[in-house]
Amino acid sequence: MFDSSVRTLVVVGAQWGDEGKGKLVDVLAEQADWVVRYQGGANAGHTVYVGEQKTVLHQVPSGILHPGVRCAIGNGVVLDPAQLFVEIEKLVAQGVDVVGRLYVSDRAHLVMPYHKQVDGASSASKAIGTTGRGIGPCYVDKVARRGVRVLDLRNPARLRTLVEAGVGHANEQLVTSGSALRASVDETMAFLSDVAPRLLPLAEDVGLALSNAVKARAALLLEGAQGSLLDVDHGTYPFVTSSNTTVGGAATGAGVPPTALHAALGVVKAYTTRVGNGPMPTELGDALGEEIRRIGNEFGATTGRPRRCGWFDGVVARYAARVNGLTALAVTKLDVLDTLPELKLCTGYLVDGELLREFPGDLGLLERAVPQYDVLPGWRKSTADARRWDDLPGEAKRYLYRLEELSGTPIRYVSVGTRRDQIIDVKA
Ligand code: IMP
After folding, report:
1. Residue nearest to atom 10 of ligand 1 (CA)
2. Mutation pick for ligand 1 pocket among 39, 138, 241, 280 (CB with most ligand atoms within 8 Å)
3. Residues of the chain with pLDDT under 70
4. Which of 6, 49, 60, 105 would give a disulfide with 206, using CB separation of 3.0 to 4.6 Å?
5. Which DSSP string corresponds to 120-171?
């Protein structure tokens, strides 16, 4: 997707996460100079297969498997340093060269052990079904201006003051939620003095490095985590994550100007999944939903939780296209639908007798929404070996044309399996 006019490309999920962004980023990283994570943290699970080798990345950008590509964790990420080192060690054991290629923004906020305690104990987190990785509580501290940033590790006196404020707030939360756990300033300081010598050598002014890369017309790939419908502003609030997962978040979270973003690739599954609670109008609560979960191996890459499965939702995709300004779509997991005799695509919601074609902000409306479907015949053939558009069965093409029409965005890629090579570039 990179060419002389597209030097900066954002890849975002256009549903509720788990769309297969990791694979697309890995494929596109071949043409990139930089791959950058800009929001979220260890709640993400980006799965990349190279041959039979499966790698799940939580915080390290999915470009790391391409030698020569520089990877950055931007200021908008909430970074769990202990988890980062577990991930780096696994990559190194796999023979991946990480040293000198991974940069961490000195302005990124740190997820503390007490953020995870608060996330685990809070009834609000349970109601949302969070990943328990401390993401929400860390962003709360960031916005409340008591967060700890990577650069604070350089200043022990300031660090202690911030930790005291953070621990004090965390303990209030733990008491309120009835938890017996308590955070401790000394234990937190000991944790930070352990991670500081390993983290500080990776710390950089990532915004400056990326802005210089933009000026030099380097190819930048900005890798979104979660999905557009989990965006704290545009998603199914309050059943969302605590960051801006949409393209706007790429500029603020990487530290590059919005005007530097040239194109946006939205990744959608050929059907819909969601993990955690909150509305999902096209959910299939029946045997078919279970069959899709089994064929698609729909279990969370981070938490192992079963994902809720349902039909493709054109209202969601069109909304994501609008909010993100998508310039192209990548449709993943088409092969999961290979055996189904009949397929449905949602074209609108019937709410209280009225047809809604725009995604509503009011969850009450969404909960009452009755999806309206187009029904298309299945292709009942394997698509796993398709490498060109013309290799696809006619019914699959018809399904994709309708999906494209409903989304209002041209399809550029179709993924037909987990491996790197199982992809169709429609323009190739
Ligand atoms: P949190 O991000 O852990 O606070 O969780 C908030 C919501 O976002 C929950 O519904 C999670 O299941 C969902 N979520 C967070 N990260 C991901 C992800 O990477 N994929 C899918 N859902 C996610």
Report:
1. 276
2. 241
3. none
4. 105
5. HH-HHHHHHT--SSSHHHHHHHHHTT---BGGGGG-HHHHHHHHHHHHHHHH
